[in-house]
Amino acid sequence: MAESFETESRKLLGRLRDAMASEGAGQERLDKITTLIASSMGCEVCSIYLFRDEKTLELCATEGLNKASVHETRMKLGEGLVGRVAKRGNVINTSDAPQSPGFRFMPETGEEIYSSFVGIPIQRIGETLGVLVAQSKTAREFTADEVYALEVVAMVLAEMTELGIFVGDGAAMSARHSQPVLSRGTVGQEGVAEGNVWLHEPRVVVSNPIADDPEVEAIRLTAAVEELRIGVDQMLTMAGNDKEQREVIEAYRMFANSKGWMRRMLDSISSGLSAEAAVEKEQSTARARMNGQSDAYLRERLSDLDDLSNRLLRILTGQGSDTGAEMPENPILVARNIGPAELLDYGRKLRGIVLEGGSVGSHAAIIARALAIPLLVHVGRITNDAVNGDHIMVDGEQGIVHLRPEDAVAAAFRDKIAMQAAAQERYSSIRDQPAQAKCGTVIGLDMNAGLMADLPSLENSGAEGVGLFRTELQFLVRNKMPKRSELSALYARVLDAAQGKRVVFRTLDIGSDKVLPYMKPNDEPNPALGWRAIRVGLDKPGVMRMQLQALIRAANGRPLTVMFPFVAQFEEFRAARAEMDKTLAREERLGHILPSKIEVGAMLETPSLAFAPTKFFEEVEFLSIGGNDLKQFFFAADRENERVRRRYDTLNVSYLTFLEGIVKRCQETNTSLSFCGEDAGRPVEALCFAAIGFRQLSMRPASIGPVKSLLRRCNLDDVLAVINDARDSGEMSVRSAVMEYVRAQHQS
Ligand code: PEP
Ligand code: MG
Questions:
Q1: Greatest alpha-carbon span in the chain
Q2: What pLDDT score was predicted for residue 82?
Q3: Rounded to a whole number, what is the distance in angstroms from the first to the last CA of the chain?
């Protein structure tokens, strides 16, 4: 880059800084800036457009266009050249604007006489805040140096916008992070919550985008990058032989040592940016590319670069994750993503969780569910919109987040919370009553658990016992394989807390969506149909044996109930049962006390097991239907795939008839049967299951009240009649007929 160009760029930034520091309102500053840029770039027009709402840009200042059009000229995102720059987040540079695709003539600005046009997105960490435009009469493309200089200016404008330097009248010039925002996401855990934003990784504030002395900045940057490299090397040493971790860190290392990255940042510094702003400029470009990238591999690499830029910014500004900010009351965690261990550290302090990424089946979601904290995932740009301490409301029924809500919205939301609280009160009044339907039939309600944090619910929810203890959660939240002694101590604590209530321990169910961080990953084309659960347990019995030993030792003479997951055929159950018998014999030889009673069952999660030989039903001591898996295989619809997972109704006649067949086989063979998938916790589904013959259901603790309350109001014989009528009349699902019946019970 030519030295004279750099000197010019620095001079311009110096003047911008003076404008930034000058007295006066935001409007005056913007006006001054457009004049400065036009004169220093030698072009007739310079304009700045900012967003007035998510989809509309507004001309906020101009040198060269008709001043009367300021705050009058507006365009939608994607409309005209300016709208296109904003939508795509990249530069448009043309010598013949009127002939360019997308050009929109706006007579009020008088701009048709300007032939050359360059539009630069004003971006901060990948978020477009507006557009900077330069135009001139002579038909010529702006040179690469000119475009670069404008990009540097746009970077500074973005920082100034973030810092509130242009705040003035009207929506386009309102302070950032002051407007109400409504975002939508996917529900990971139901429930509603009101509180204040707590950012897991507070954003770094860059208060000095323009440098006093480029040499000093270059030295600062070089030192910070060196520190970053040392940090990455240390991470690599700590990763040991963990292949997956090493791969990620190697990618970090590649970026940290990238000459191109360093050179581009040093160029930005030479043009007058501070070291922080130079890092942010690169980060912004990476974020913009990430958003438009469909290749998953490249997206991940760009996200590595993004992480690295964050680290570098934290080194430069001294703003660590721990900024010393105090956690607000009723904290609602807002993050791009969060790991299970970090989430457990926060524990029950949190009122809600809102993630930009994440997934319904992620480990963090499992933990949020266990802690009964409302969780939304895939929530737009929440980490850009939210600021620590902002008022926030999470609607985990509708999948909506209200950030800085208006009073009317907040009031309506509070009504909803109050209604829920009233319902909770009703539920606690029947906590110690049985789930007895009007016809006299009693349904046993158990709870699902997996963490120590779940156990207090055994008392509070009125559950009879734990119908499903997902033991893999203890494996998932650690970064290395737990030891037998640790597991045995933990299971003993579970049994202690249960105080004699039955706890069904499900052996390790890993694979598919549950991948242990410390186990060699398997590259399988279809993990849900792959090497998972009991298949891993039987092929590599070491872990299963260790777990069975831990369970026997934890029971220490008390009754023990063990269930094997994902059994697809009789032989697998027999083999697993044989492992259990061998382990019992071995434990006895070693002098350990055996359980006073032992029950061994299986999960029915594949349609095949429903058609197993009658002998299987006679041999297995109990069966529990894992409806989450069973339904996905019955309908061939991936439970993790948002597109298809809700496509088939649980109350679809085919599925219900299939479940009924399983109930009949169990009745004929006197096999105890329960249902422990998520559907058991949905009141209307639970009612139908009870009507077709289920006598035991296991669900999240929070669902016990609503399920019991509905069961107590209904007559199961009547519900079965409604189901049969709907079925006979050829309905696809019995839902609407049953709902009609339920509504009638509410009114009576
Ligand atoms: C199920 O599949 O319904 C089940 C309870 O197991 P998980 O959700 O842990 O796969
Ligand atoms: Mg399952």
A1: 96
A2: 95
A3: 82
Task: With respect to residue 494, please indicate whether it lies within any of the assigned structural domains.
Answer: yes
Among 46, 71, 363, 378, the active-site one is 363
Q: So what's the pLDDT on residue 18?
A: 83
pLDDT, one tens digit per residue, over 330-376 is 999 999 888 777 788 888 899 999 998 877 766 778 788 878 899 99
The domain boundary residue, chosen from 256, 282, 317: 317
The CATH number of residue 149's host domain is 3.30.450.40
Catalytic residue flag (residue 676):
yes
Residue linked to tokens 């046009």: 117
Residues 507-561: tens digit of each pLDDT: 999 887 677 767 777 778 888 899 999 999 999 899 999 999 999 999 999 999 9
Q: Which of 513, 567, 605, 697 to mutate to test the pocket of ligand 1 (most atoms within 8 A of CB)?
A: 605
Pocket test for ligand 1, best of 472, 509, 655, 703 (most atoms within 8 A of CB): 509
* Ligand of minimum distance to the alpha carbon of 369: 1
118 lines ligand 1 (CB under 6 A): no
d(CA 580, CA 165): 70
Residue ranges of the chain with per-residue pLDDT less than 50: none
Residue 163: inside a domain? yes
User: Cα–Cα distance between 298 and 608 in angstroms, integer?
Assistant: 40
Sequence-distant (6+) residues with CB within 8 A of 550 are 484, 485, 487, 488, 491
Domain holding 538, by residue range, is: 430-747
> In sequence order, what are the beta bridge partners of 446?
698
Ligand with minimal distance to 534 CA: 2
Domain end point (choices 389, 419, 449): 419
The answer to whether position 425 is within a domain reads: no
